[in-house]
C-alpha cells in the first residue's frame, strides 16, 4: 500500500502530478486516483486507500474547496490524524479545515528548497515515521518563523537565531542554517535601534559559503552589510550573485527588492517583488511593498489594484496570529487603496492598540495614509515614533522613499529626519546627500 494519498480537484491534476512525482523522488509510495482499477467501484477504492495511507496530502485550490470528494477525503484524513494541507493557489482551506496549518505551494515549480515544499515533506516524514533529523525539523521551524513571523517585531529574528545556533552547535557543517542565521542577524542589527553592537551576520554567511558556495541566501547578509555602509556597487554585486545562483529564491528576490528600493531603483525593486509574490502566494509583505513601488513610480491605478489583492492574504495571516502588526498594517493599506477609508482607520487603530512598538508597522501605515488617504497629519503622527526609534535600515528607507516626498518640505518631518539621521550615524537627512 502507498505511504501517501494525494487528494485534489480534477482541474488541478498537473499540480497533483508534480507533487506526487516529487514525493516519489523522496522515496515515498504515492497514490492518487489515476491508478483506479477498472473492475472496482470508485468509492470503495478511495475509502480503502484512505484507510491504508499514513499521510493524506490535500491540495486545496478554489476548485478543490468546491469539491465534495476533496472535502470528504480531507475530513476522513482529519479524523484519522493524517491530514496534511497544501494551498496551490492561495486558497484558504474551507471550514473546518482552516483551523489546521497549511503549507503554501502557490506558484511552485518543483523547487525542493522552497519553504512550502520543506514544510510539506517534514509533515510527511513525521506521519510516515520517516522522521527528519532533529536538525532538519529545527531548520524547518526557523524558516517558518522567518516567513510567517511578525515583520518589524524583533522576536522573529531572535527566535530564528536561537534555533539556528542550536542547529549549528549540533552540526557545524549545516550550511543552510548558517545562511539563515546570518540573514536574521543582519536584519536584527540593522532594522532595530540599540542593536549596533550585535553580530552583522557576516561570519555566519561566510561560513555557509565556505561549506556550500551555491547557497544564494548566504550572499544576502553581505549585501546588507555593504548597503548599510553606502557601498551600493558592492551590495548590488552580492545581490546579482544571489539571483544568479537561484533566480527562484524567495528570500533573494525579496531582500534584493528591499535594498534596490533604498538605492532608488524602483523598477528593479518592483521586478524582484513581482517574482517574490509569484513564489509565495501567502506573502502579503512582498505584495504590500510592491504596491509601494508602483505608487512611488506614479502608477496609482496599479498600486491600488495590487493593494486590493492584499486583504485575502492578510486575513489568512491574521487567522494564524491575530496580533500580527505587519498584517494589520497591510490590511489597512488594502482598505485605503480601494477607498474604504473608515475601515482603513479602524484597522489602523487596531494595529496601534495591539502592536504599538512595531516601528515598521507604523512606517507601513504612514505611506498609504499619505498616498491613498492624503492625511499628512496622521502620517506624521505615525512616522514620529518610527523615526525616533527605528534602526539605520528604517531611516535609510525613509530617506529614499518617494512615497514620502509630499512631506519633504514639511518642517516637522524635516526635523524628524535630521534627528533620526544623526541618531543612527548618517551624514545627512537628505537622500541625495546621504
Low-confidence stretches: 429-434
Strand order of the largest sheet: 2-1-3-4-5
- The sequence of SSEs as H and E is EHEHEHHEEHHHHHHHHHHHHHHHHHH
Number of helices: 22
Structural class: mainly alpha
- The pLDDT mean sits at 86
Please identify which CATH superfamily of one domain we are dealing with: Toll/interleukin-1 receptor homology (TIR) domain
State which percent range the strand residues make up.
under 5%
- CATH architecture classification name of one domain: 3-Layer(aba) Sandwich
Distance from first to last alpha carbon: 65 Å
**CATH fold-level name of one domain:** Rossmann fold
Main sheet makeup? 5 strands, parallel
What does this structure look like?
- The chain has a five-stranded parallel sheet with strand order 2-1-3-4-5.
- The protein has helices spanning 13-25, 42-52, 62-66, 68-79, 115-128, 134-148, 155-170, 175-191, 202-211, 219-228, 232-245, 250-262, 266-279, 284-296, 300-308, 310-320, 325-337, 341-354, 359-373, 376-389, 392-400, 411-424; strands spanning 4-7, 30-31, 55-60, 83-87, 102-104.
- 64% of the residues lie in helices and 5% in strands.
- β1, α1 and β2 form a beta-alpha-beta unit.
- The protein is mainly α and 434 residues long.
- α6 (134-148) runs antiparallel to α7 and α11 packs antiparallel against α12.
- It has a domain at 4-128: Rossmann fold.
- Residues 429-434 have low confidence and may be disordered.
- The radius of gyration is 23 Å and the shape is globular.
- The protein is built from 22 helices and five strands.
